[in-house]
């Protein structure tokens, strides 16, 4: 039987594929160090796990919830916006769902008609383009440059704009580059979007994982007009070490949020109830473990960045947030005789036993991605192996 074209035409998530390959090699006995999946290596803080356990034991998690999430969860999310964004959102402007990833997809399904265009600054997180295509839209890639710290500019956006442009995707801090847009940059981009009536999809999932004094400004806080034009996507996976619970949320215009909740009501029905109780505790309970994890990522970044800089042929900009390093390995590829970054990544895996993610999946054919959400000792050993590999 032939599968549907939408599946035949899409790629498997390259981050998940790289993670699975590293896992399989490890299971076969190979000593692989995996810096693939962007996933905190910490278990979910205990207070959150206990709240989930209590919800299971007293039976609260046994039932469906409203499609967009429990009222108590929406209240907790509203408080999160008040605290970290400084504005209030009403419950009907909030939807919770099965991970930020599924909410992004739900958003595209809600707003895109066939051939509507979504501008995606490149390098981009692996899932955006395929999700847009699944929703029958057209991804329009705008190449950013390392000289501009991988940040898109208004002239670049203007050059990409057509009568079909419906959405601009903005991911700050960025996966994979770790770059953060400044308030001035956001103001210029936001005003451009407002002027041309282009929706801003702000993927703020790494907003609380920023380092060395860097500040994250959400684009939706720049002005009332820009806020009205923006849908914020966020989630608990990264900040709260909760990838397995699949908690994401979105906030913005009532119409779009209602559309997203409608899709949820016809697909997953609701975010798993036990995860909602865990999320309420995460958002409203003690926050000290969050800062401890953030500091630990910061320490890893500050340790590993200067070491990676010394690997022959690896050139990189110091990230400000998220938990990835994204070196340009053009020179490293040339030194080892590779012209294709995926082949280079495979050679690193085979010969150095370090699993990285090829930049190809991020629209960056000269880069590789390393996640530093791993033990310091693992990171140090991985970079040592990379250096040995490059010096051979
Ligand atoms: N956006 C970005 C930029 C990401 O890196 C991720 C990775 N998990 C997600 C969204 C999705 O996160 P989740 O589905 O775990 O909430
Ligand atoms: N977002 C993480 C990453 O980029 C987790 C995997 C995924 O969702 O793609 O590695």
UniProtKB/TrEMBL annotation:
UniProtKB keywords: Aminotransferase, Pyridoxal phosphate, Transferase
EC number of this enzyme: 2.6.1.-
Any GO BP: amino acid metabolic process
InterPro entries in alphabetical order: Aminotransferase_I/II_large, AspAT/PAT-like, NHTrfase_class1_PyrdxlP-BS, PyrdxlP-dep_Trfase, PyrdxlP-dep_Trfase_major, PyrdxlP-dep_Trfase_small
Keyword presence, Kinase: no
Enzyme superclass (EC): transferase
Domain Aminotransferase class I/classII large span(s) in chain numbering: 31-386
A Pfam family this chain is assigned to: Aminotran_1_2
Any one GO MF annotation of this record: transaminase activity
CC cofactor: pyridoxal 5'-phosphate
Family label: Belongs to the class-I pyridoxal-phosphate-dependent aminotransferase family.
Protein name as it appears in the record: Aminotransferase
Organism whose genome encodes this protein: Streptococcus pantholopis
């Amino acid at each position: 039987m032939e599968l549907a074209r939408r599946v035949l035409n899409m790629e498997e998530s390259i981050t998940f594929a790289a993670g699975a390959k590293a896992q399989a090699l490890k299971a076969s006995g190979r000593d692989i160090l995996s810096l693939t999946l962007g996933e905190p290596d910490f278990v979910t803080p205990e207070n959150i796990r206990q709240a989930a356990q209590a919800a299971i034991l007293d039976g609260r998690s046994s039932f469906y919830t409203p499609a967009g999430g429990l009222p108590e969860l929406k209240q907790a999310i509203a408080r999160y916006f008040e605290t970290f964004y400084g504005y209030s959102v009403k419950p009907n402007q909030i939807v919770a769902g099965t991970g930020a990833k599924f909410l992004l997809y739900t958003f595209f399904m809600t707003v895109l008609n066939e051939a509507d265009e979504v501008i995606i600054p490149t390098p981009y997180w692996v899932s955006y383009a395929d999700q847009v295509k699944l929703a029958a839209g057209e991804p329009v890639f705008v190449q950013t440059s390392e000289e501009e710290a991988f940040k898109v500019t208004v002239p670049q956006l203007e050059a990409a704009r057509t009568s079909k442009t419906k959405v601009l995707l903005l991911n700050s801090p960025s996966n994979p580059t770790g770059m953060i847009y400044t308030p001035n940059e956001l103001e210029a981009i936001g005003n451009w979007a407002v002027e041309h009536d282009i929706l801003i999809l702000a993927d703020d999932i790494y907003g609380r994982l920023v380092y060395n004094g860097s500040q994250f400004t959400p684009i939706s806080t720049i002005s009332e007009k820009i806020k009205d034009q923006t849908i914020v996507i966020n989630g608990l996976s990264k900040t709260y070490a909760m990838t397995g619970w699949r908690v994401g949320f979105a906030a913005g215009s009532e119409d779009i949020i209602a559309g997203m909740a409608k899709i949820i009501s016809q697909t997953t029905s609701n975010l798993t109830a036990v995860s909602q109780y865990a999320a309420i505790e995460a958002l409203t309970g003690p926050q000290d473990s969050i800062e401890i994890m953030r500091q630990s990522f910061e320490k890893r970044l500050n340790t590993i960045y200067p070491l990676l800089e010394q690997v022959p042929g690896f050139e990189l900009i110091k990230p400000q947030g998220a938990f990835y390093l994204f070196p340009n390995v053009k020179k490293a590829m040339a030194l080892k005789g590779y012209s294709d970054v995926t082949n280079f990544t495979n050679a690193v895996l085979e010969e150095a036993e370090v699993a990285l993610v090829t930049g190809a999946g991020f629209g960056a054919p000269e880069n590789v991605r390393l996640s530093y959400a791993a033990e310091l000792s693992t990171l140090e050993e991985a970079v040592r192996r990379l250096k040995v590999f490059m010096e051979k």
